[in-house]
Hints:
CATH architecture of chain A: Up-down Bundle
Distance between the termini of chain B: 61 Å
Strand content of chain B: 5-15%
Number of domains of chain B: 4
Structural class of chain B: alpha/beta
Order of helices and strands of chain A: HHHHH
Low-confidence stretches of chain B: 389-409
Mean pLDDT of chain B: 82
Radius of gyration of chain A: 15 Å
Oligomer: heterodimer
Number of domains of chain A: 1
Number of strands of chain A: 0
CATH architecture of the largest domain in chain B: 3-Layer(aba) Sandwich
Amino acid sequence: MADNYQNETYLGLLEKLGPKQSLVLIEKLMIDIKNTRRGLQAALSTKTTDMLNEPSHVLISLAGVVDVEELHSLAKTINEFDGDVFPVDTVKATIECLDLWLDFLKSDRTARGLAS
Amino acid sequence: MKKQKLLLIEDTPTLQMIYQANLANAGYVVDVASTGREGLDLFRANNNYVVIMDLFLPDMDGVAVIRQFMHNNPQSKIIVITSNGSVNRAVEAMRAGAFDFLLKPFSDERLLATVASALASFESKAEVNLATGNFYDIIGRGPLMQDMYRKIMRIAPSTAPVFVIGERGVGKEACANAIHNHLGTEARPFISYSGGDLSPAVQDETLFGGLDDLDLELTNDEKGALQKAYGGTLYISEVSELDPFVQSKLAVFLRKVSQNNQYFDNAGNHFPRIICSTSTDPYVLLETRKIREDLFYQLHILTINVPALRDIGDDIIFVAEEMLKRLSKSEQKTYVGLSAEVADLFLSHSWPRNINQLRNLIHKIVASYDASLVDIDMLPIGFASDSKRAIDIGMDLDDERFTVKRNTIAIQQLVGLQLDEVEREFIDATIHAHGGSIPKAAEILGLAPSTIYRKRSKS
C-alpha cells in the first residue's frame, strides 16, 4: 500500500522543500488528515450529509496535491454526493484509507527524522 | 511584475505550505492568511492586487470576502480555489468579481499560469488602488473621492460624451485623463483643448483644423485638436467658452457620429470620445445660453462631479501629506507630514482654488524650507486668518460657541444691505458652495429650482 502514498508527486514535493521543510510538511499533512478524518467521523456518526462538505472539500485538495488517486476519487464522490441516503460505505472506506495514509506518514516521518 | 506581492488565503496548513512554496519557487512574494479577516487586513496593509483564496474559510463567507476586496479595490484580481461539488459557489464568486477559479486538484503549472494571467491583466491598471487613495494622477481616499473613482471606472468603457463638473482648480482634467487611461494601456491620444482666450476663427482652426462640418473625412494635413484625438479622447476645457459657431459645428459632428454609429479617419482610428468640463452647473449654462441647446444635449449624457477640496473633510490631510511626500521626493527633501496646527488650519481653510492652490502652497513650502514637518511658520502671511478665523477666535472648530460667534460675525457683515440683496447673495453663495448646482442649492434652501432661476433672473 505504501507505494500508493509514496508516489512521484509526494517525493517530488519533499525534494522541492528540502529535508527540514519536508518534516514540517509531513507534520502539517498529518494534522490536516486527522482533522478531515474527525470531520468525516462526525458526519458518519450523525449521518448528516451537510457535514460532509467541508472535510471532503479539504480532502480533495490534500489527496490531489500528493496524487493519492484512490482517496481523491472517494473524496470527490463524497463532495459531489447528491443522494438522499447518507453514503455510509464511501465514508467508511475513506476513513480507512485515511488511517492507512496516517500510518504511512508516521513511519515516513520517523525515517526522515532519523535520516536528517 | 514577478516581484508583485500575492495574497494567499488558505486555512488548510498543508495546502497553504504547498501553494506558498510553489509560488515562491516561481519568484513571487506571498503574504499568507488563514482566515478571511486576516486576509482582508493583509490586503489593506500590503496593497495586494492578486489574491488566491479558498472559497471555504473558517470565519467568513468566501463570496462576502471577495465583495470586500472588490469594494476596496475593484481592480484586484481574485483567483478562487474550489472543488467540483462547489462549482455553484465558484459561479457566485465570479459574479461577485472573481477573476478566475481553480478546480481542485490543480497542477503547479495551472496555478502559475492563472496567476501570470491575473498579473498581466492587472498590469494595465497598476496605477489604481482605491484603498491607498491612488487613482492615476488623482490623490484621495475618502468616501467622496472613492465614489468618484468608482463612477470613473463605470463610465470609462462607454463611448458616450462626459461632462466633468467642478469648481476651478479641482482637477477636472485629471479626472478626464483617468477616464481615458482607465480604458487600457494601449497608446491612444489624449488631447486637451482650451479655447477660452482664442478668437472664434482661431478656435475653429485649432479645434477642427481642415475638417469640414459637411464631412468627417480628413481634408487637411494641418490637424486640429479633434483630428489629433481620433482613436482616443478629446478633452474640451470649459466648453461654454467656445464660440457659439464653434459649438454649433461641434454639435453637428457629434450628431453625425451618433446617427452613424462610428466615424473613422484615414488611418482607421475612430472618432474621439469627447469629455468636456465646466465649473458652472451645466443647466445654468443652458439657462443662461452659454452653451447651445443642440450641443448641450449631445454632450450632457454622462456627468461626473469632482468634489471641492473643502468638501472632502479629513481626506484633505491625506491629500496634502501625499502631495508633500511626492514633492519632497522630487525636491530631494525629507518632509514626512504636517504639524498638528497646520493640519487643523488646512481642515478649516476654504481653498477657493482647490487642489491647484494646495499643490502650489505645498510646493512653495517644500522648495523654500528644509524640515521634516510643515510648520505653521512656513505658511504664507494671512493664511491662518483666512482659515475661518479659527485661530484668531481661539476656539475649537467643533466648539458650538465658535459656530454661534462665527455666524454672528457673518450676519453683522450683512447689516446695511437690502433684504432682496441679502437673499440674492445668500442664494448665490449656496449655489457656489454646492459646486454650482442649482438643484442641490434648491434642496438645501427648501425651494424649487425654478424659484431660484426666477429670483436670480430678477437681478
